[in-house]
Amino acid sequence: MTLDPSLLDLSDDPASIRVVVAMSGGVDSSVVAGLLAQAGYDVVGVTLQLYDHGEMAHRKGACCAGQDIYDASEVARTLGIPHYVLDYESRFREEVIDRFADSYASGITPIPCVDCNRTVKFRDLLATAEDLGAQVLATGHYVSTRALPDGRRALYRGADDNRDQSYFLYATTPAQLAKLRFPLGGMSKDEVRALALSMGLEVADKPDSQDICFVPGGNYAEVVERLRPEAAEAGDIVHLDGRVLGRHRGVLHYTIGQRKGLGISTPEPLYVVGIDAARREVRVGPREALAVRTIHIQDVNWLGDLPFETACAEGAKVHVKVRSTRPPIPGRLGMGADGEPRVFLSGGEEGVAPGQACVFYDAPGSGARLLGGGTILKAERPAPASAETLSTELA
User: Are 305 and 279 in a shared domain?
Assistant: First the structure.
């Protein structure tokens, strides 16, 4: 398999185009660098040191840790391309790690990968790529972009539903999309690993990186407690009916929809349905209390053709993802009486957690266009109309 030039929409003379590749040391970004180098582009590899990687260097699957920096350098050497390691530790701490800890301390479930892509990778690294004289920045994300008739670029889900990463890229701006390229959007992971083998890259069989790269051993609570110790203060577990059922170990250990690890014994299964960090309360209830039909969102990034306000006023139909692992479900955009944006769901959804992303697509399947998204502020159980009416509207 070779690189499809139409994926880049660049000059017919690859040698005249400099492309910076964000190289994490994993197989995906390594194959991107290899494909571009084979196609004749002027490729420069850049790896970001995002945190103190001393304690992480021994852990396989830790993105941007010491081993990964070494692996990226070895891939660049094999491919014969220049490679730079940039110290982004302070900005990553401010933009990602601190926000992550603050969110959990506030009873909110964050998505650090979204913050990282929005700021450190696609804002700051794009600026660095331009300083290096590059026309575009390429990454190993499993998404695609294509040019629209008006010259803008649109973002689409990856061809492989199991690898699609568009949910984490909803905050990418139109200006950033103009400079970004994602050569792996039409491939499967097996195809990418086969390409790595054919290129002689030692990372061909390297395990995938963890979603939260800066959390040693996956213990996010340890990181949050160290940075925001107040998030580990004990409090009450309270049923929706007002009963105090027990004590919890700190709000950082809980998220909406959680069932396991509550430490209480009840005749019926109970789930976390709310977190009040100020009162140090974790609220629980039956599963039906998780279902919501109306989502309040903020900090919206819109990539659709119509202005966002127009799309809301017209009740534009969309397909909505509220968790990275959930399939998109039918919904529509709208505005509340307060003039703030809402997303109305036809069939309802469970476990909608403040701090997570609510992402909109024009269709449910692979290859669908990403229209934008926002941060979930809160969710409501009542429907904006009867279930029957709304389901009919969205059919």
Answer: no
Cα–Cα distance between 23 and 71 in angstroms, integer? 9
Q: What is the pTM of this model?
A: 0.90
**Least confident span in 284-293, 322-331, 382-391:** 382-391
Residue among 63, 113, 116, 358 flagged as catalytic: 116
Question: Which CATH number characterizes residue 284's domain?
Answer: 2.30.30.280
Phi, psi of 155 (to 5 degrees): -110, 135
The span from the CA of 72 to the CA of 63, in Å, is 11
Q: Which two tokens stand for residue 186?
A: 């039409």
Query: Which one of the listed residues 63, 64, 113, 213 is annotated catalytic?
Result: 213
Residue 73 burial (C-beta neighbours within 10 Å; 0-12, 13-18, 19+): middle
The amino acid occupying position 362 is: D
Same-domain check for residues 247 and 370: no
> What CA–CA distances, in Å, run from 226 to 26, 31, 84, 98, 99?
29, 37, 32, 11, 14
**Domain total in the chain:** 3
312 is catalytic: no
Contact residues for 60 (Cβ-Cβ < 8 A; gap 6+) = 67, 206, 207
Range of the domain at 165: 5-217
Confidence at 56, pLDDT banded by 50, 70, 90: very low
Evaluate whether 22 touches 84 at the Cβ level (below 8 Å): no
pLDDT of 122-131, one tens digit each?
999 999 999 9
Are residues 142 and 32 part of one domain? yes
Is 213 a known active-site residue?
A: yes
Same domain, yes or no, for 163 and 300? Answer: no
Cβ neighbour number for residue 101 with a 10 Å cutoff: 21
Last residue of a domain, one of 167, 191, 217: 217
